[in-house]
Specification:
Layout: E1 3-20, E2 26-42, H1 46-63, E3 67-80, H2 82-88, E4 95-98, H3 99-102
Antiparallel strand pairs: 1-2, 1-3, 2-4
Length: 103
């Protein structure tokens, strides 16, 4: 069965941040962010792998309360990668970036 490396890009998600304010009190704030993440999936077809990855990532982000009404995800890259799969599957984590600073 083929093994795939899939790179996903998301926009309009949010993360919780903390800022120190007067008298060192922590203020919780939400910041609008985008992200990149890589996952490794073993699947019969590339389309099936993509569908599964979107479901997995969506569930992870919803559980963390990071989804907004206009959040979007798109496929950035998919490639068969048996060696990467064997070393890193299933993959995890996100690389977030501040959408305001991207422009």
């Amino acid at each position: 069965m083929p093994k795939f490396r899939i790179l996903i890009h998301g926009e309009n998600y949010r993360i919780r941040t903390q800022k120190k304010s007067f008298l060192f009190r922590k203020k919780i704030d939400w910041k609008q962010v985008g992200f990149y993440t890589t996952r490794f999936i073993e699947s019969e077809t590339a389309n099936e792998a993509i569908e599964r990855v979107f479901k997995i990532i969506d569930a992870e982000l919803r559980e963390a309360g990071r989804v907004t009404a206009d959040s979007t995800m798109e496929l950035s890259e998919i490639q068969e990668d048996e060696k990467g799969y064997d070393l890193y599957a299933p993959g995890g984590g996100f690389t977030f970036y501040n959408e305001d600073e991207e422009e």
